[in-house]
Design goal:
The chain is mainly alpha-helical. The protein has 2 domains: 160 residues, no CATH class; 188 residues, no CATH class. It is built from 16 helices and no strands. Helix content is 62%, strand content 0%.
């Protein structure tokens, strides 16, 4: 009920994103049901039916990726202060996000079933003069278990992915200190070497002291330390500090504070997650370049005069697409660094810093868009015009994949804007104008287009060159 109330009370922009997920789920569900209809109509062509079903993996993955991006930007399930007091902790908000995703995907699957039954003629007469009867198995009974299984694949996959990705995580990393052994076993945790007789001195084994405190206490009884103590009638120094006394050292990250925490456990005020600092480049650029090179080599081998199986071409496309996704965050970080070269002004400095900070967030969707665009261009090279390679179902699959990738990129851009809301407000308070912020956003978009546009065209041309020859 809570998920339904949050879904109904959301803003129009949030509702539009959820409707996009439902539309993508409807397209993917219709493709799955079409594979079932083809298998029922052509029972002797089991291999062709299995190949059609395997091609549905692309629309399925694109729809799940879009559902995850929409769940991340949902403002109703964002952790806020005081939500745990009313029973909406991180785990409950994750469950609400998963249920909202399940509702959107289930709505799309039901819509796909209605359209499928209508085109088959089960709800009314056969539309379009029976043009869709070949791949929808019109006139044949549909097995209900198979229909329900195919329609449940997308909601179950999307819900599980959202639940795993948005599960509550401990912000503090798990630190395991190495167990140290002292002179008398595991209880001796002193890191410094103890002098003879230090164990028997009073206060040398107090629980709250570290190795440096123990060393200081051990040295306090030495003749040098005793000679530095003031006499009985000497007045104390200014501030009440006894001159020559052993000073208590500051916390070194291992000694507990009065509240029970340590300095190593408490993060720094300006600490940022790994990969989000402007000076740290995201990992994966060398591996991405290596995978793109390997994918292009596999495709070139598949395009030789000696015929090779079709899976080699698919493997080349998969390697190339994976390499683009891995290399895109590093390329985005490099683009932000290039914007700040040669004495940058406020506009270029702000644009470059934002790109370097958001490289890990917006780089992967950019890589997915580049991979889809290059693969789509390579697919068009297979159409020689003599045979009908692409039909209405292929056009629907291409529309679902392309629409989901572009919608995911726009959704991630909205998420990045939401994460920079505090920074933008601080810049406005410091005197930055709205024109400057809009100019920085436009400059970032142009810089990314200049970098990734020619890259996508080059990879697409190299991928289509062996098939065209």
């Amino acid at each position: 009920m809570l998920a339904l109330r949050l879904t109904r009370a959301a803003r129009p922009a949030v509702q539009l994103r959820r409707l996009l997920v439902a539309a993508a789920a409807a397209g993917t569900g219709f493709l799955l049901l079409s594979c079932l209809g083809y298998a029922l109509k052509h029972p002797q062509a089991a291999g062709s039916a299995a190949l059609r079903l395997s091609w549905c993996a692309g629309p399925l993955a694109a729809t799940v990726y879009l559902a995850l991006a929409v769940a991340r930007t949902d403002p109703a399930t964002r952790p806020r202060t005081g939500m745990s007091a009313v029973g909406l902790g991180p785990a409950r908000l994750m469950a609400v996000s998963a249920l909202t995703t399940a509702l959107s995907c289930t709505l799309g699957s039901m819509l796909a079933l209605l359209v499928f039954l209508h085109l088959r003629g089960d709800l009314s007469g056969l539309p379009f003069d029976g043009a869709a009867a070949d791949f929808l198995a019109a006139g044949l009974p549909l097995p209900a278990p198979a229909v329900l299984t195919l329609l449940a694949v997308l909601p179950a996959t999307a819900t599980t992915t959202v639940a795993v990705a948005l599960r509550p995580k401990d912000p503090r990393p798990l630190r395991r200190e190495p167990r140290r052994f002292g002179r008398f076993g595991a209880t001796g945790g002193a890191s410094a070497r103890e002098s003879f007789g230090a164990y028997g001195r009073f206060g040398a084994r107090s629980g709250g002291r570290t190795g440096r405190n123990t060393a200081a206490v051990g040295q306090a009884g030495s003749p040098a330390a005793e000679g530095a103590l003031p006499a009985a009638g000497d007045p104390p120094a200014a501030g009440g500090r006894v001159p020559g006394a052993a000073a208590v050292p500051e916390r070194d990250g291992t000694s507990p504070a009065p509240d029970g925490t340590t300095a190593a456990d408490s993060p720094a005020p300006d600490a940022a997650p790994a990969g989000t600092r402007p000076g740290t480049a995201p990992a994966g650029l060398p591996w991405g370049i290596a995978l793109v090179t390997a994918g292009l080599a596999v495709q070139a081998y598949a395009g030789r005069p000696v015929p090779v199986p079709a899976p080699a071409v698919l493997l080349g496309w998969l390697l190339t697409g994976t390499g683009l996704v891995l290399a895109a965050p590093g390329l985005t970080h490099l683009c932000g660094r290039l914007l700040q070269t040669s004495r940058p002004g406020a506009l270029r400095l702000l644009s470059g810093r934002v790109l370097m900070t958001e490289a890990a967030r917006i780089g992967r969707p950019l890589g997915v868009v580049c991979a889809v665009a290059s693969t789509g261009y390579a697919l068009t090279a297979l159409d020689d015009g003599s045979s009908r390679t692409f039909g209405p179902l292929s056009a629907l699959a291409a529309l679902v994949v392309a629409g989901c990738t572009v919608a995911t990129l726009l959704t991630v851009a909205v998420e990045a804007r939401q994460c920079r809301a505090d920074t933008t407000a601080a810049l406005l308070r410091l005197g930055a104008t709205a024109t400057l912020l809009r100019g920085a956003a436009a400059l970032r978009a142009v810089a990314l287009l200049v970098l990734f546009g020619p890259l996508t065209v080059a990879v697409a041309a190299l991928s289509a060159l062996p098939q065209a020859g």
